[in-house]
Specification:
By secondary structure, the chain is an alpha/beta fold. The protein folds into two domains: 225 residues, Alpha-Beta Complex (Spore Coat Polysaccharide Biosynthesis Protein SpsA, Chain A); 209 residues, UDP N-Acetylglucosamine Acyltransferase, domain 1. The protein has eight helices and 35 strands. A hairpin with a 5-residue loop joins strand 8 and strand 9. The radius of gyration is 31 Å and the shape is elongated. Bound molecules: uridine-diphosphate-N-acetylglucosamine and magnesium ion. The site of magnesium ion (MG) has 2 residues, from loops.
Length: 459
């Protein structure tokens, strides 16, 4: 089985400078979803027909390892779906009578591999197998024409349909499996004498009937699986459908979602037992939550893991981090890439961390920047502490031993090391190492000026 994915169209109704199939659903470009589904359905080879924004699409996907074998084909002028499939003819193996060509659309993103497998099963006995849909919303879609014996004999596009044919509610999803042996001949026989002056792939159905070949149809129940995206409203609709499907699965697994319509997973989320997720939470990339993890409202978590018993409070943003057990983060904390929090760490409001390893039981409860740091166990980072990691050109590291106490509003100018049990007086600027058990005071001595007069207001 070989797959041909049609993705050359511009997507005029998206009103976007970007190719349509790059637009994302669930955080993933639509075309990426279709390619992944084709791989899952065991495609032996994958041909993707691109046209509008071809270079951008290729550049975007060539980075993905499993897409290395994709055969990108250019359809310079979009002369119709039949013409698009024709671009793949020289690449496919049409000598093997058992080979099947499965045609997918790059803008039908939610098609499932098990549906395709059913269609492929049907295609073993039939030269053409269509995936059709029964719907009252048949507007703009190709109508399936059946004879008195209920056999499919043609597909008629809406623009070419008679008033009577327009009433037909069985429509073409566009997805079909075609015998590879017959395909080149049928494509060569297509013409564009229709309302849109296009080479319709759908016309091969009538040609197959002419040649005495059998046509079968698999009618799908879930409309969303074959819903194409032509505009932003359809994109938004499928995004909701996908989110609701994912969130229903989470609920089934026992995850508590305070409101399943207000949690978005734009990637993969794996949850342990007794996980609670409040409203307006977004997960991106790959996120793992352990047992008894609680996520507050308005939290965004990307490519991170959070271990058992940790609590993420409202408005916190976490990216590229590994969070230990029984930690508490937020509200309103920002945990940036390279952050590793060991067990029982506490990060409070308006604290930002980046490339920081923070040891067990350590705390930074308010207003701090901790960048390029290694912090031992049971340290306390006072309010307003800044790790000055950047000299304007290079980044430098700060290390703290165990049980270090940093007084409020201090700056630690990296590179600098503070050994075990050191104590920094509030308001200090520390730019040289502090030996263990020392108090470091890095500020000017306080002067009190007696008899000083406040300024008075001038007229
Ligand atoms: C097509 C079908 C119609 C079906 C509908 C389902 C034909 C003639 N009609 O109509 O029966 O009900 O899909 O959504 O096939 N494309 C190219 N090159 C082209 C033309 C199209 O790559 O020259 C791609 C588009 O990017 C898109 C797909 O093929 O991914 C479908 O094209 P589109 O123009 O949307 O076809 P429809 O008119 O919707
Ligand atoms: Mg369409």
């Amino acid at each position: 089985m070989e797959v041909v994915i049609l993705a050359a169209g511009k997507g005029t109704r998206m009103y976007s400078a970007h190719p349509k199939v790059i637009h994302t659903i669930g955080g993933k470009p639509m075309l990426q979803r279709v390619i992944e589904t084709a791989i899952k359905a065991n495609a032996n080879s994958l041909h993707v027909v691109i046209g509008f924004g071809a270079d951008r699409i290729k550049n975007h996907f060539e980075k993905i390892e499993s897409f290395k074998s994709v055969n990108w084909l250019l359809q310079e002028h979009q002369l119709g779906t039949g013409h698009a499939v024709q671009q793949a003819v020289s690449s496919i193996n049409s000598d093997d009578e058992n080979n099947t060509i499965l045609v997918l659309y790059g803008d039908v993103p939610l098609i499932q591999a098990d549906t395709l497998e059913k269609l492929l099963k049907l295609s073993r006995q039939n030269a053409v197998s269509l995936l059709t849909l029964e719907t009252e919303n048949n507007e703009g879609l190709g109508r399936i024409i059946r004879n008195d014996a209920n056999e499919v004999v043609a597909i008629v596009e809406e623009k070419d349909a008679t008033a009577e044919q327009k009433h037909i509610q069985e429509v073409n999803s566009g997805i079909m499996a075609i015998s590879a042996m017959h395909l080149p001949d049928w494509l060569a026989r297509l013409d564009n004498s229709n309302e849109q002056a296009e080479y319709y792939l759908t016309d091969i159905v009538a040609l197959a009937v002419e040649d005495g070949c059998k046509i079968s149809a698999l009618t799908i129940a879930d409309e969303n699986e074959v819903q194409g995206v032509n505009d932003k409203s359809q994109l938004a609709h499928l995004e909701r459908q996908l989110q609701m499907t994912n969130n229903s699965k989470l609920l089934e697994q026992g995850v508590t979602l305070r409101d399943p319509t207000r949690v978005d997973v734009r990637g993969e989320l794996s949850c342990g037992q007794d996980v609670e997720i409040d409203v307006n939470v977004i997960f991106e990339g790959s996120v793992t939550l352990g047992n008894n993890v609680s996520i507050g409202a308005n939290v965004i978590i990307k490519d991170s893991s959070i271990d058992d018993g940790s609590v993420i409070l409202a408005n916190t943003n976490i990216e590229g981090a590994s969070i230990g057990k029984d930690t508490a983060i937020g509200p309103s904390a920002r945990i940036r890439p390279g952050t590793i929090l060991r067990d029982k760490v506490k990060i409070g409001n308006f604290v930002e961390t980046k490339k920081a390893v923070i040891g067990e039981g350590s705390k930074a409860n308010h207003l701090a920047y901790i960048g390029d740091a290694e912090i031992g166990k049971d340290c306390n980072i006072g309010a307003g502490t800044i790790f000055c990691n950047y000299d304007g050109v290079n980044k430098h590291k700060t290390t703290l031993g165990n049980n270090v106490f940093i007084g409020s509003n201090s700056v630690l100018v990296a590179p600098v090391n503070l050994a075990d049990n050191t104590f920094v007086a509030a308001g200090s600027a520390i730019n040289s190492d502090v030996p263990s058990d020392n108090l470091a005071v890095g500020r000017t001595k306080q002067r009190n000026i007696s008899g000083w007069k406040r300024p008075v207001k001038k007229d």
